[in-house]
Predict the structure.
Amino acid sequence: MPIQIKQENGGKLVAVQVTGKLVKADYERCVPEFERLIRQHGKLRLLFEMTDFHGWEAGALWDEIKLDIKLFADIERLAVVGDKKWEHGMATFSKPFTRATIRYFDQANAAEARKWLREASGPRP
């Protein structure tokens, strides 16, 4: 499955592992899980790890945008971990659409991303 969702830190941290190319059905499977986690835990801290990620099919990209807009209000911090310049651009592109603090980390710094997500919240940079 291209999207794997795992709860950590008592459910306040959600690790999302994405691989391959995403299709519309991937979002249809994961959206109910995100909604359940938000109902259960409130605002989430999200670790979005892209490993060997090849993007989206056209319909899946639209579903990604709709999911982002729907969930952004419920995300407190978002760490994007990847290894390509365009993945860094995704993190930058998302900033105007959310009040969440977003940071990009290279794959080599994945442990730093987890540490940042577990830190106490402070003022927005």
Observations:
- The two ends are 35 Å apart (CA to CA).
- The first strand starts at residue 3 and ends at 8.
